[in-house]
Amino acid sequence: MAVTDDAISKIKQMIQQGELRPGDRLPPEQELAERLGLSRSSMREAVKALEAMRILDVRRGDGTYVTSLQPSLLLEAMSFVLDFHESHAVLEVFEVRRIVEPASAALAARRATPEQVAAMREHLTAVHGETPSDELVEHDVAFHRMIAAATGNDYLVSLLETISSQTARARVWRALTQDNAVPRTLQEHERILDAIAAGDADVARAAMIVHIAGVEHWLHDAAERESEALAQADEA
Predict the structure, then answer these.
(1) Which of 32, 50, 109, 123 gives 204 a disulfide partner, CB atoms 3.0 to 4.6 angstroms apart?
(2) Which domain of life is it from (predicted)?
């Protein structure tokens, strides 16, 4: 389990056990990090992840608060990876992505103009290994949108936009909790773009399959970890 993932679990456990209640203000960062045996950097990443999930509310200059959700809704929100796994909702969306997006990449390899390829290349150069997780997600969404646009098929662009909107929370969670998510995503995007620039539809399709499948595998693993954590909490 990644360090940040462990930090998220510990904060969630405090809320589940009633140490922190909806509306409560979290202790100062340094105090909470020492109390949970975590580094300040992992604590900050955990808070960012929980803020993205609307579990925590970071008020600049004031502090960080547990959102004023009803306890049942709060726990439901915290377990969204498990909930999605059990209902197959997000996994089904990723199955559709694995079917449609490789075809999109292959079509883009056949139809992308030099100007579109140059724009995608410029987009990639704006992101680097130290790019914050939230910016990585924005980059990822924009890059996939540019590939869809390069197909020249407006219906496909609209379809992929709908699919993308339904995977937003999973993308945020992965970017914030998976080790080396930024460099891995950038490398995969570069392989896809290189194939599109070369006009090689087969390689573009294969590179996109690898990219989407990697996210799917992470989602399965995250759901299993969440399930084990909840089972251990119930036993305790």
Answers:
(1) 109
(2) Bacteria
Clarify whether residues 102 and 201 are in a common domain.
yes
Alpha helices for the chain (secondary structure H): 3-16, 29-36, 40-52, 71-78, 80-87, 89-111, 114-125, 133-150, 154-165, 168-177, 181-197, 201-235
pTM for the full model?
0.63
What is the helix (H) or strand (E) element at residue 65, kind and residue range?
strand 63-66
- The helix/strand/coil state of 56 is strand
Supply 49's token pair: 């992840």
Phi, psi of 4 (to 5 degrees): -65, -40
Residues 98, 211: Cα–Cα separation, whole Å: 9
User: Quick one: 221 and 111 in the same domain?
Assistant: yes
Q: Which residues form the domain of 128?
A: 80-226
Cα 124–chain centre separation:
18
How many Å from the N-terminal Cα to the C-terminal Cα in the chain?
A: 20
Q: Which two structure tokens, joined as six digits, stand for 13?
A: 């456990």
